[in-house]
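Pipeline run #58 for the internal structure catalog. This entry was flagged by the ingest filter as a single-chain record with no existing model, so it goes straight to prediction. Upstream metadata was stripped on purpose; only the residue string is passed forward. Reviewer on rotation: M.T. Logging verbosity set to normal.
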Amino acid sequence: MEQVDGYLIDDTQEKKANIPAEVGIIKKLGWQDHVQIDQIEEDLTITRIEFLPEKEITMRAEGPATFSIHLCLGGKGTVEIDGGAPFDVKPGCAILFSSDRYTKGSNHICAGEEVCFIDLRYQSSFLRAAGGRHLQQFATSLLNEHCVPEDGAFMIGFPMSPSLKRTAREILNCSMQGNCRELYLRAKSLEVLAHIIDFSDRAESNKESVSEQDRFKIEKAQNLLDQHFDKAWTISALSREVGLNEKKMKMGFRQLIGKTINNYHQEVRLEAAASLLREGMSVTEVTYACGFSNLSHFAKIFRKKMGVNPSDFSRH
């Protein structure tokens, strides 16, 4: 990876920790005093960063499954998931990121403006205890060009409301210590989560509704993908089969199912492939039985989804 001007950092030391990639960057630059990390028991990590970058910083970042909320109070740059469109970060924006597997991406920080942000990373145990919904439910209902749903990675950015900005400032300026600090930050983290759920609910209610007739046709299309997963379905063919135009099919399927048609079809095929492999069918037989025309392509996407080669899957 090449960087013509400024800093280029390939994050390797921090990627397994439950902290943002920028922490590793700042440590490498010798600016540890600009970072404060609060580990609240084992299910919540809050990181606050304030510094003034003298040069632009570009970094590769990667890490395991996570659910995080990033609140930007100062600084500009971009963040992106590999395969998705970059999102412009600026003061007053919040970013929700969730992934159900190891994910890679790139971050860029502009020079000359003071960076100030708060990163909250919630473990699934925290969300369950808080009564929250599944960590991806927010994201899958708000698919956009920044998401890469086939890789289980979702990123949604939106302007912070005045009340969310106030909560972010209160986290930033907390001077409490010890148990009091942990209680205070845990409470504020719940506030942030409530704001995010509220945003998700509002966005959901503002969506163009799917008529009952179209809903029935979309569910019929889903059943066709489930039952005839080996067929090389195209959106146009599926739309003709159920009698719904392509635009309504694509929009309605994503709203009701939470995935694009192609991504859903591939997931159904891979789940079927895993089941057949467990039953003892050979990799070659499974490849063609599930509608894949290329053995190497099947092995590649199976490994990406399951984390293991299809030939080794039954043993695992």
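catalog note: The chain has two domains: 7-205, 212-313.
catalog note: The first helix runs from residue 21 to 28.
status: ready for reviewer M.T.
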